[in-house]
Every structure is written in C-alpha cells, then in structure tokens.
Recover the amino acids of this structure.
C-alpha cells in the first residue's frame, strides 16, 4: 500500500523484453520489495546503489502507461507505506484503474486529464485520485475529464510539472468508491 506522496523521481534506462530498469539513487530498496513506478506497483528484481530493475508483464504494459515509456523518460517513485508512517496522502494500492490523457496544464497549476466515463463515475469533487502515483484532490470533474490543482511543490518534485497535452497518465480512483458501489449494488433489491 502506498500514500501517493512521491519520494523521488527516476529515469528509465531501459524497457523491453518484460523488464524495466530505472536509474534512481537514494531509495532504501531491496530485491523483492515493492516500488510504485508512476503509480504502478512493481517488484524490484535487482537493486543497485544507482537504481533497480523490475519485471513488467504484458497485462501491466497494456493497462497502464508504462508501455509508452522509453529510455530517458522520468518516472515518479514511491516505496510502500510502513506501519509507523503517517498517511499523508490517501490509500493508493498501485493497481491502475485506467489510463487518462493530459488535456492541459495551466500556468496556475490546473491539470486537466480526460478519462473514460467508467473511471470518471468514481471521481468526485474534493475526492482523492492518484495520477501517475501522485495523490491529488479533485478540483472539478465533468463527463469527459477531471481537473486537479498542482501546488508548486508537486510541480517541482514530480513528473507532472512537465506534463504535455496528449501524455498518457495512470489513474487510480479512490478504492473506497469502488467498494461502496459494489456494496450498494448487492444491497439493492433485485
């Protein structure tokens, strides 16, 4: 489980053949540990002082934006929550629900991301969403897209500050919304 508070950014050094290698120093990461890469929970298969490698299966590549990565791309990184850590963001599982597309990033930090209706139904104003693994508060949502307001700290410390229109981004909706929907559906009379 993650919080959506990005701890570092890294650079993809290679991707292909079912493997992803990321250059990133300073992470307390060991082989077998989970690591969130742009919001996707992966398992480190190799670790070195200057980075790590992870296996990525076809399911991950097709359901997330990781398949669009290339050497040199920057990625957001987060290690899992420890029982003694503060939950400063929101509960993020690292299980991407879908891929959205950046529509715009305004000078004021307003990031608008289009998404499929089947994802947007779980998004509410002032609710939580993870975009490329970053825990954010929804400022606005309509039938086609959602908007979040990025503070200068987020713009500087994550890859979202360089988001260009058309860039695919991983979206993870609030898991509580999905559970509520399922429970309400089961409780509804047939």
């Amino acid at each position: 489980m993650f919080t959506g508070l990005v701890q570092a950014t890294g650079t993809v050094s290679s991707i292909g053949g079912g493997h992803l290698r990321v250059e990133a120093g300073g992470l307390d990461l060991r082989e077998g540990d989970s690591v969130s890469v742009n919001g996707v929970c992966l398992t480190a298969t190799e670790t070195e002082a200057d980075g790590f490698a992870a296996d990525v299966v076809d399911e991950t590549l097709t359901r997330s934006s990781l398949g669009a990565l290339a050497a040199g791309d920057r990625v957001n990184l987060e290690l899992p929550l420890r029982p003694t850590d503060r939950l400063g963001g929101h509960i993020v599982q690292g299980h991407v629900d879908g891929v959205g597309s950046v529509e715009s990033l305004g000078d004021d930090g307003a990031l608008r991301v289009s998404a499929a209706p089947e994802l947007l139904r779980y998004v509410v104003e002032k609710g939580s969403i993870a975009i490329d693994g970053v825990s954010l508060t929804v400022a606005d949502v309509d039938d086609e897209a959602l908007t979040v307001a990025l503070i200068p700290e987020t713009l500087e410390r994550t890859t979202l500050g360089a988001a260009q229109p058309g860039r695919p981004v991983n979206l993870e909706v609030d898991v509580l919304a999905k559970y509520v929907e399922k429970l309400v559906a089961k409780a509804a009379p047939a």
The chain has four helices and twelve strands.
